[in-house]
Automatic annotation (TrEMBL), chain A:
It is found in: Cell membrane. InterPro entries: Cation_antiport_E (IPR002758). It is a multi-pass membrane protein. The chain crosses the membrane at residues 7-25, 31-52, 64-87. The keyword Transmembrane helix applies. GO terms for molecular function: monoatomic cation transmembrane transporter activity. It comes from the Bacteria. PANTHER family: NA(+)/H(+) ANTIPORTER SUBUNIT E1, NA(+)_H(+) ANTIPORTER SUBUNIT E1. One of its GO terms (cellular component) is plasma membrane. This is Multisubunit potassium/proton antiporter PhaE subunit. It comes from Allosediminivita pacifica. Belongs to the CPA3 antiporters (TC 2.A.63) subunit E family. Keywords: Cell membrane, Membrane, Transmembrane, Transmembrane helix.
From TrEMBL, chain B:
It comes from Allosediminivita pacifica. This is Multisubunit potassium/proton antiporter PhaG subunit. Residues 118-133 have a biased composition (Basic and acidic residues). Pfam families: PhaG_MnhG_YufB. The keyword NADP does not apply. The chain crosses the membrane at residues 6-33, 45-63, 69-90. The keyword Transmembrane helix applies. Keywords: Membrane, Transmembrane, Transmembrane helix. InterPro entries: PhaG_MnhG_YufB. PANTHER family: ANTIPORTER SUBUNIT MNHG2-RELATED. The lineage of its organism: Bacteria, Pseudomonadati, Pseudomonadota, Alphaproteobacteria, Rhodobacterales. Residues 104-133 are annotated as: Disordered.
Length: 166, 133
Protein backbone atom coordinates (compact mmCIF):
# COMPACT_ATOMS: atom_id res chain seq x y z
CA UNK A 1 0.00 0.00 0.00
CA UNK A 2 2.73 2.44 0.97
CA UNK A 3 4.72 1.65 -2.14
CA UNK A 4 1.69 2.01 -4.39
CA UNK A 5 0.97 5.38 -2.79
CA UNK A 6 4.55 6.50 -3.33
CA UNK A 7 4.48 5.32 -6.95
CA UNK A 8 1.21 7.16 -7.60
CA UNK A 9 2.06 10.33 -5.63
CA UNK A 10 5.85 10.70 -5.45
CA UNK A 11 5.61 14.31 -4.22
CA UNK A 12 2.49 14.79 -2.03
CA UNK A 13 3.17 18.48 -1.32
CA UNK A 14 3.61 19.21 -5.04
CA UNK A 15 0.32 17.42 -5.77
CA UNK A 16 -1.44 19.52 -3.13
CA UNK A 17 0.14 22.72 -4.46
CA UNK A 18 -0.86 21.98 -8.08
CA UNK A 19 -4.44 21.21 -7.03
CA UNK A 20 -4.69 24.49 -5.13
CA UNK A 21 -3.17 26.40 -8.08
CA UNK A 22 -5.70 24.81 -10.46
CA UNK A 23 -8.65 25.76 -8.24
CA UNK A 24 -7.29 29.32 -7.88
CA UNK A 25 -6.87 29.56 -11.66
CA UNK A 26 -10.53 28.55 -12.14
CA UNK A 27 -11.47 31.17 -9.53
CA UNK A 28 -14.38 29.03 -8.28
CA UNK A 29 -14.69 25.86 -6.26
CA UNK A 30 -16.85 23.04 -7.58
CA UNK A 31 -16.58 19.29 -7.17
CA UNK A 32 -15.69 18.76 -10.83
CA UNK A 33 -12.89 21.33 -10.70
CA UNK A 34 -11.55 19.74 -7.51
CA UNK A 35 -11.44 16.29 -9.11
CA UNK A 36 -9.80 17.64 -12.26
CA UNK A 37 -7.29 19.54 -10.09
CA UNK A 38 -6.41 16.36 -8.22
CA UNK A 39 -6.01 14.48 -11.53
CA UNK A 40 -3.64 17.22 -12.77
CA UNK A 41 -1.85 17.20 -9.42
CA UNK A 42 -1.16 13.48 -9.83
CA UNK A 43 -0.36 13.50 -13.56
CA UNK A 44 2.04 16.47 -13.64
CA UNK A 45 4.46 15.28 -10.89
CA UNK A 46 4.29 11.79 -12.41
CA UNK A 47 5.12 13.04 -15.91
CA UNK A 48 7.91 15.35 -14.74
CA UNK A 49 9.34 13.01 -12.09
CA UNK A 50 12.52 12.60 -14.15
CA UNK A 51 13.44 16.20 -13.17
CA UNK A 52 12.71 15.61 -9.47
CA UNK A 53 15.18 12.83 -8.70
CA UNK A 54 14.96 13.02 -4.91
CA UNK A 55 12.66 14.62 -2.39
CA UNK A 56 14.30 16.71 0.35
CA UNK A 57 14.46 14.55 3.45
CA UNK A 58 12.74 15.66 6.62
CA UNK A 59 10.96 18.71 5.21
CA UNK A 60 8.72 20.22 7.93
CA UNK A 61 5.72 21.90 6.33
CA UNK A 62 4.39 23.35 9.61
CA UNK A 63 7.58 25.27 10.31
CA UNK A 64 7.59 26.38 6.67
CA UNK A 65 4.20 28.08 7.18
CA UNK A 66 5.55 29.86 10.28
CA UNK A 67 8.65 30.89 8.31
CA UNK A 68 6.46 32.28 5.48
CA UNK A 69 4.54 34.44 7.95
CA UNK A 70 7.80 35.87 9.34
CA UNK A 71 9.09 36.54 5.82
CA UNK A 72 5.88 38.29 4.71
CA UNK A 73 6.01 40.48 7.83
CA UNK A 74 9.68 41.28 7.11
CA UNK A 75 8.81 42.13 3.50
CA UNK A 76 6.28 44.74 4.66
CA UNK A 77 8.78 46.25 7.13
CA UNK A 78 11.52 46.11 4.47
CA UNK A 79 9.38 47.95 1.97
CA UNK A 80 8.80 50.80 4.39
CA UNK A 81 12.51 50.95 5.28
CA UNK A 82 13.61 50.93 1.63
CA UNK A 83 10.98 53.53 0.72
CA UNK A 84 12.33 55.72 3.55
CA UNK A 85 15.91 55.28 2.33
CA UNK A 86 14.87 56.09 -1.25
CA UNK A 87 13.09 59.27 -0.22
CA UNK A 88 15.45 60.64 2.46
CA UNK A 89 19.05 59.46 1.99
CA UNK A 90 20.94 61.43 -0.69
CA UNK A 91 23.14 59.46 -3.10
CA UNK A 92 26.37 60.80 -1.62
CA UNK A 93 25.54 59.50 1.85
CA UNK A 94 24.39 56.08 0.69
CA UNK A 95 26.63 53.28 2.00
CA UNK A 96 26.14 50.21 -0.19
CA UNK A 97 28.26 47.17 0.68
CA UNK A 98 29.00 43.62 -0.36
CA UNK A 99 28.75 41.07 2.40
CA UNK A 100 29.78 37.43 2.38
CA UNK A 101 27.44 35.07 4.22
CA UNK A 102 29.06 31.74 5.09
CA UNK A 103 26.45 29.04 4.61
CA UNK A 104 25.81 26.09 6.87
CA UNK A 105 22.95 24.92 4.65
CA UNK A 106 23.91 22.33 2.04
CA UNK A 107 20.71 21.28 0.28
CA UNK A 108 20.20 23.20 -3.02
CA UNK A 109 16.50 23.74 -2.19
CA UNK A 110 17.34 25.33 1.16
CA UNK A 111 19.99 27.62 -0.35
CA UNK A 112 17.53 28.69 -3.07
CA UNK A 113 14.94 29.55 -0.43
CA UNK A 114 17.49 31.51 1.61
CA UNK A 115 18.66 33.46 -1.46
CA UNK A 116 15.06 34.27 -2.40
CA UNK A 117 14.26 35.38 1.13
CA UNK A 118 17.31 37.64 1.23
CA UNK A 119 16.34 39.30 -2.05
CA UNK A 120 12.78 39.95 -0.84
CA UNK A 121 13.76 41.40 2.58
CA UNK A 122 15.43 44.52 4.07
CA UNK A 123 17.55 46.28 1.45
CA UNK A 124 19.50 43.17 0.50
CA UNK A 125 19.91 41.34 -2.83
CA UNK A 126 21.61 37.98 -3.07
CA UNK A 127 23.91 38.22 -6.08
CA UNK A 128 26.09 35.15 -6.31
CA UNK A 129 27.20 31.87 -4.81
CA UNK A 130 30.80 30.74 -4.41
CA UNK A 131 31.84 27.92 -6.72
CA UNK A 132 31.86 25.36 -3.89
CA UNK A 133 28.43 26.57 -2.72
CA UNK A 134 29.59 27.42 0.82
CA UNK A 135 29.29 31.23 0.69
CA UNK A 136 26.58 33.57 -0.51
CA UNK A 137 27.33 37.03 -1.90
CA UNK A 138 24.81 39.64 -0.77
CA UNK A 139 24.55 43.29 -1.77
CA UNK A 140 23.25 45.68 0.89
CA UNK A 141 21.65 48.98 -0.11
CA UNK A 142 22.50 51.06 2.96
CA UNK A 143 24.22 49.89 6.11
CA UNK A 144 26.59 51.18 8.77
CA UNK A 145 27.49 47.74 10.05
CA UNK A 146 27.77 44.96 7.42
CA UNK A 147 28.63 42.34 10.07
CA UNK A 148 25.34 42.96 11.88
CA UNK A 149 23.41 42.40 8.64
CA UNK A 150 25.27 39.13 8.08
CA UNK A 151 24.56 37.96 11.64
CA UNK A 152 20.88 38.86 11.30
CA UNK A 153 20.56 36.83 8.09
CA UNK A 154 22.22 33.88 9.81
CA UNK A 155 20.16 33.98 13.01
CA UNK A 156 16.82 35.06 11.58
CA UNK A 157 16.57 33.04 8.36
CA UNK A 158 19.30 30.44 8.08
CA UNK A 159 18.73 29.02 11.56
CA UNK A 160 15.02 28.53 10.80
CA UNK A 161 15.71 27.04 7.37
CA UNK A 162 18.11 24.58 9.01
CA UNK A 163 15.27 23.46 11.26
CA UNK A 164 12.89 23.15 8.28
CA UNK A 165 15.34 21.06 6.21
CA UNK A 166 16.84 19.06 9.05
CA UNK B 1 -25.02 48.61 2.42
CA UNK B 2 -22.49 49.64 5.06
CA UNK B 3 -20.30 46.61 4.39
CA UNK B 4 -20.31 47.46 0.70
CA UNK B 5 -19.30 51.05 1.38
CA UNK B 6 -16.57 49.88 3.75
CA UNK B 7 -15.30 47.54 1.03
CA UNK B 8 -15.11 50.38 -1.46
CA UNK B 9 -13.22 52.55 1.05
CA UNK B 10 -10.81 49.69 1.77
CA UNK B 11 -10.27 49.27 -1.97
CA UNK B 12 -9.48 52.97 -2.30
CA UNK B 13 -7.01 52.86 0.60
CA UNK B 14 -5.24 49.78 -0.77
CA UNK B 15 -5.02 51.40 -4.22
CA UNK B 16 -3.54 54.53 -2.64
CA UNK B 17 -0.93 52.62 -0.59
CA UNK B 18 0.00 50.48 -3.60
CA UNK B 19 0.39 53.50 -5.84
CA UNK B 20 2.59 55.26 -3.27
CA UNK B 21 4.92 52.26 -3.09
CA UNK B 22 5.07 51.92 -6.88
CA UNK B 23 5.94 55.60 -7.30
CA UNK B 24 8.63 55.33 -4.59
CA UNK B 25 10.08 52.40 -6.55
CA UNK B 26 10.14 54.53 -9.70
CA UNK B 27 11.78 57.42 -7.82
CA UNK B 28 14.43 55.04 -6.53
CA UNK B 29 15.05 53.70 -10.00
CA UNK B 30 15.59 57.24 -11.30
CA UNK B 31 17.50 58.60 -8.29
CA UNK B 32 20.21 56.05 -7.52
CA UNK B 33 23.35 56.38 -9.60
CA UNK B 34 24.95 52.94 -9.32
CA UNK B 35 23.43 49.93 -11.15
CA UNK B 36 23.60 47.70 -8.06
CA UNK B 37 21.80 50.15 -5.75
CA UNK B 38 19.31 50.91 -8.52
CA UNK B 39 18.38 47.23 -8.43
CA UNK B 40 17.09 47.51 -4.85
CA UNK B 41 14.25 49.96 -5.40
CA UNK B 42 12.09 48.04 -7.90
CA UNK B 43 12.66 44.54 -6.48
CA UNK B 44 11.41 45.39 -3.03
CA UNK B 45 9.09 48.31 -3.32
CA UNK B 46 7.56 46.68 -6.40
CA UNK B 47 6.42 43.54 -4.60
CA UNK B 48 4.43 45.38 -1.93
CA UNK B 49 3.15 47.95 -4.43
CA UNK B 50 1.79 45.33 -6.81
CA UNK B 51 0.62 43.25 -3.81
CA UNK B 52 -1.47 46.15 -2.51
CA UNK B 53 -2.99 46.78 -5.97
CA UNK B 54 -3.95 43.08 -6.20
CA UNK B 55 -5.40 43.22 -2.66
CA UNK B 56 -7.50 46.17 -3.83
CA UNK B 57 -8.71 44.01 -6.72
CA UNK B 58 -9.75 41.25 -4.28
CA UNK B 59 -11.60 43.59 -1.92
CA UNK B 60 -13.31 45.30 -4.85
CA UNK B 61 -14.59 42.00 -6.22
CA UNK B 62 -15.96 41.00 -2.80
CA UNK B 63 -17.47 44.45 -2.14
CA UNK B 64 -19.35 44.35 -5.44
CA UNK B 65 -20.79 40.89 -4.83
CA UNK B 66 -18.30 38.71 -6.68
CA UNK B 67 -15.61 36.47 -5.32
CA UNK B 68 -12.21 36.54 -6.93
CA UNK B 69 -9.07 35.27 -5.25
CA UNK B 70 -6.89 34.24 -8.15
CA UNK B 71 -4.94 37.46 -7.52
CA UNK B 72 -3.24 35.39 -4.80
CA UNK B 73 -1.65 33.37 -7.61
CA UNK B 74 -0.25 36.51 -9.24
CA UNK B 75 1.27 37.48 -5.88
CA UNK B 76 2.76 34.01 -5.41
CA UNK B 77 4.30 34.01 -8.89
CA UNK B 78 5.68 37.54 -8.37
CA UNK B 79 7.28 36.53 -5.07
CA UNK B 80 8.85 33.49 -6.70
CA UNK B 81 10.14 35.24 -9.83
CA UNK B 82 11.28 38.63 -8.43
CA UNK B 83 14.40 37.22 -6.69
CA UNK B 84 15.39 35.33 -9.83
CA UNK B 85 15.23 38.35 -12.12
CA UNK B 86 17.09 40.41 -9.49
CA UNK B 87 19.75 37.70 -9.34
CA UNK B 88 20.13 37.74 -13.14
CA UNK B 89 20.49 41.54 -13.22
CA UNK B 90 23.06 41.35 -10.41
CA UNK B 91 25.03 38.72 -12.36
CA UNK B 92 24.88 40.90 -15.50
CA UNK B 93 26.23 43.83 -13.44
CA UNK B 94 29.08 41.68 -12.13
CA UNK B 95 29.99 40.55 -15.66
CA UNK B 96 29.93 44.10 -16.98
CA UNK B 97 32.10 45.27 -14.08
CA UNK B 98 29.83 48.20 -13.25
CA UNK B 99 29.70 47.42 -9.52
CA UNK B 100 32.21 47.68 -6.68
CA UNK B 101 34.86 44.91 -6.79
CA UNK B 102 33.66 41.68 -5.22
CA UNK B 103 35.01 40.71 -1.78
CA UNK B 104 37.49 37.85 -1.59
CA UNK B 105 36.46 34.47 -0.32
CA UNK B 106 37.98 33.15 2.93
CA UNK B 107 39.23 30.00 1.23
CA UNK B 108 40.81 30.37 -2.23
CA UNK B 109 37.64 29.69 -4.21
CA UNK B 110 36.00 32.05 -6.69
CA UNK B 111 32.48 33.33 -7.13
CA UNK B 112 30.59 31.08 -9.50
CA UNK B 113 29.77 33.94 -11.88
CA UNK B 114 33.48 34.65 -12.28
CA UNK B 115 34.54 31.03 -12.79
CA UNK B 116 36.61 30.95 -16.01
CA UNK B 117 34.65 29.51 -18.92
CA UNK B 118 37.29 26.95 -19.96
CA UNK B 119 37.18 25.35 -16.48
CA UNK B 120 33.42 25.50 -16.26
CA UNK B 121 32.50 21.98 -17.33
CA UNK B 122 34.50 19.91 -14.85
CA UNK B 123 33.98 21.89 -11.60
CA UNK B 124 30.29 22.35 -12.22
CA UNK B 125 29.63 18.63 -12.58
CA UNK B 126 31.67 18.01 -9.48
CA UNK B 127 29.81 20.71 -7.54
CA UNK B 128 26.36 19.32 -8.34
CA UNK B 129 27.51 15.83 -7.39
CA UNK B 130 28.82 17.17 -4.09
CA UNK B 131 25.67 19.20 -3.47
CA UNK B 132 23.46 16.17 -3.94
CA UNK B 133 25.50 13.87 -1.73
Amino acid sequence: MGRAFRWLIPHPLLTLLLTVVWILLQNQLSAGMLVFGIILGILIPWGTSIWWPDTPKGFRAGRMVFYSVIVIWDIIIANIQVAWIVLTVPNAKLKPAWIVVPLELRQPEAITLLAGTITLTPGTVSADLSDDGHELLVHVLHTDDPDAVRDEIKTRYERRLKEIFS
Amino acid sequence: MTLEVLGIYATAIFLLIGSVFVIVGVIGLLKFSDPMTRLHAPTKVGTLGIGMLLLASITHSFATGGSSIHELLIMAFLFVTAPISANFIAKANIHRGVCAPLPDLPDDGTWSTLTPVENERAPREEATEGGRA
